Amino acid sequence: MSKWTLFTKATRFWSFSVMLIPIVLGTVGAYVWERSFHPVLFILTLIGAISAHLFSNMVNDLWDYRNGTDTKAKNSAGEISTNSGLLTGGILSESFYAKMTWSMLAIALICGGILSIYSGWNILWFVLVGALIAYFYVAPPLRYGYRGKGYSEIAIFIAFGIMPVLGSFFVQTGHFSMKPVILSLPVGFLTTLLLFNHHFLHWKADEQAGKLTLVVVWGEQKALVFSRVLLFTGYASVVICVLMGVLPVYALLALVTAFWPIRIYRGLKPHNASPAYIPLMGASQKASVRCGVVMAATLLIQGLF
Ligand SMILES: CC(C)=CCC/C(C)=C/CC/C(C)=C/CC/C(C)=C/CC/C(C)=C/CC/C(C)=C/CC/C(C)=C/CC/C(C)=C/COP(=O)(O)OP(=O)(O)O
């Protein structure tokens, strides 16, 4: 395995698009509403936020391995593991993996430090809250992501919606505003949907390992209803953005991106084998990214013309 392949597997690198999109949205908002854009600060924000995201993926794997959760998922017949598989497969040692994990945190912290010097110390709030949310999702004593109370969904909504959109807006402008908060709602909900749907892939193994996700607590049928509600709420918030003047009316084009997940939901029964949820997960990721791309593009068009 090449070093790059190892890196992409260890960090679950290809999930980075769900962080890239909110960063772009906040930056485009700053440009369109305030005519403020600093390319170097944008690059630093991108590197810092994506490193923070990769750190959260890795620290999750590390603790799931230490807690034995990922080994259970690997050994459960019919279940689909969504961790990197490098620790459970013995491909990387725990100590090497931990060093890589803390390096990601270090990069994020350095970027956060530099940005706080240029854009204002308020950035440090994002650094503090981001690090706490990422670490205690799975690490003891909190392990708040596995309590089956919806805390993980709230954390994802904040970490992949409000924080990166508002944070990247703040980096460019040096102040806060309600506009980026409203702008963050669709991608916040749709990325929460992605995380929620990925729990369907291994919920039986999660249950055995005592990992209480909402799918485990509610059961498949009820969780599928909530999944649809999340999708609806995500797209309804695009309409809210338009009604509140945060996006131009032609941003409603983003609603078209709901077509793919809706088609997948139609093919699902109240109870399904794990593999049936792979297309749903793919469609949720695409919905979040495509909806965000259309929102950013239409906002930029409005600002340019
Ligand atoms: C996370 C971290 C390193 C934070 C440190 C500092 C930090 C935030 C640095 C960024 C500094 C910058 C760039 C500041 C500029 C202003 C900006 C843009 C601010 C936004 C900051 C930001 C990106 C905040 C979000 C931080 C993040 C990503 C928090 C993680 C959220 C979270 C709970 C993630 C869980 C991820 C996973 C893997 C879920 C799935 O796990 P699980 O359910 O177990 O399933 P599986 O079986 O698949 O493992």
UniProtKB/TrEMBL annotation:
- Top EC class of this enzyme: transferase
Q: Which UniProt keywords apply?
A: Membrane, Menaquinone biosynthesis, Transferase, Transmembrane, Transmembrane helix
Q: How does it sit in the membrane?
A: Multi-pass membrane protein
Q: Which residues cross the membrane?
A: 12-33, 39-56, 123-142, 154-175, 181-200, 237-260
Q: Where is it chiefly localized?
A: membrane
Specify the superkingdom: Bacteria
Do you know which InterPro entries this protein is assigned to? UbiA_prenyltransferase (IPR000537), UbiA_sf (IPR044878), UBIAD1 (IPR026046)
As for subcellular location, the record says: Membrane
Q: In which pathway does it act?
A: Quinol/quinone metabolism; menaquinone biosynthesis
Q: Can you provide one Gene Ontology molecular function annotated for this UniProt record?
A: 1,4-dihydroxy-2-naphthoate polyprenyltransferase activity
* Protein name per its UniProtKB record: 1,4-dihydroxy-2-naphthoate octaprenyltransferase
Q: Which organism is it from?
A: Paenibacillus pseudetheri
